[in-house]
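comment on this one:
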Amino acid sequence: MRLGRIMTTTIQRTMTMSVRAFFAFIVLAMLPACAGDVSLDLNLEGLLRERSYVNPRSAADPDVPPFSAGVMVGNTFHVSGTLGLGPNQTVPETAQEEARNVLTNVQNTLEAAGLTMDDLVSVQVYASDVADYDAFNEVYRTFFTQEYPARAFLGSGPLLFGARFEVLGFAVAR
């Protein structure tokens, strides 16, 4: 049907991959109610398979932990849990210093994927002590130039290596 081809062409040219995937889901959900032959070629399978990695694993180096710093799927980037430890995995003296370290590490991971902190859409902060909330926020505010991403600040109990904070997030390429 001509309308279906026009809609597909328009969708492919003007919408991001994530929006296309969402739109395709809605359209496919409505297809049983539609009369006639509608053909959509959105290549959703391809969108979900496209992946690139920041710091991918290396079988040659057993000291590399068994995860990537980040993974890009389509135009969505997943930042792995990140710590803000100092040299030799030492815990910085202050919560502010550790917050700066962890957010710099997140920023470096995003930059390796061609993104910025302002591309973050969701952040989860795990804190070994929720009393460090204000200290974390003091530093966190300085890392953004636009609107803040959605965020959760969660009390976690002990973190690896005695860290105060672990941060993970999701960014969407613009």
